[in-house]
Amino acid sequence: MTATAVEAPGRARMRDDGAHERTSTDVRRAGLRITEIFHSLQGETSRVGLPTVFVRLTGCPLRCGYCDTAYAFHGGRTMAIDEIVDEVARYQTHYVTVTGGEPLAQRGCLDLLSMLCDRGWSVSLETSGALDVAPVDARVSRIVDIKTPGSDEVARNRWENLDHLGMHDEIKFVLCSEADYLWARQILVERALASRCPVLFSPSYEQLPAATLAEWILRDRLPVRLQLQLHKQLWGEARGR
Length: 241
Ligand code: SF4
Fold this sequence. Notes:
Layout: H1 24-29, E1 31-41, E2 51-57, E3 77-80, H2 81-89, E4 95-99, H3 109-118, E5 122-127, E6 141-145, E7 170-175, H4 178-190, E8 199-203, H5 210-219, E9 225-226, H6 230-235
Parallel strand pairs: 2-4, 4-5, 5-6, 6-7, 7-8, 8-9
Antiparallel strand pairs: 1-2, 1-3
Bound molecules: iron/sulfur cluster.
The site of iron/sulfur cluster (SF4) has 10 residues, from loops.
């Protein structure tokens, strides 16, 4: 790890009222179900291309039609937070992404995020947008999906989450079709999303050609970032990359 600690270890700084603190002992006792921990290049978001350690938590309450991590729905192994942190440290990177599945479906995820921040990593969280992101440590960059009709999970969007996002966070749409694009464009305008944080439009892999989405974004002058999944360009759908 190249970064230094930014806060006393074991002090979890929360977004809600700043008064929510726990001892390091409490935090370290918590265990989490983990599918995999691996070292790769960040394939998405504004951190694309950066060497990153990924911590993939097991389990997700959603079932998106395009899900490419269904192997993380079940199984995994239970690891104490200290064990997870030790494993992350082995790779000597500055960036850590906690992903899933839906990482926030496990309560201990909040403690893990705070512990990773305490240890000095630059931490991002990838979440479905269906669960409350307000309690996430303020140092974490939250990458929050807005599920489109084409995902089959549009009813799960927790719209209140948008009120908690800032420029440190990002909103992501995965688009399956032109109908999804038009829906996302409307949400973007109606909810003034680009004034809240960076917005990512990503084509669903093998469902929507990236060049087509690029043309639509340019035609409509949308203030969004086209996002391709770098890891899939490099390694296809290989697991753990
Ligand atoms: S939220 Fe993510 S992990 Fe869960 S089903 Fe949808 S794409 Fe898969």
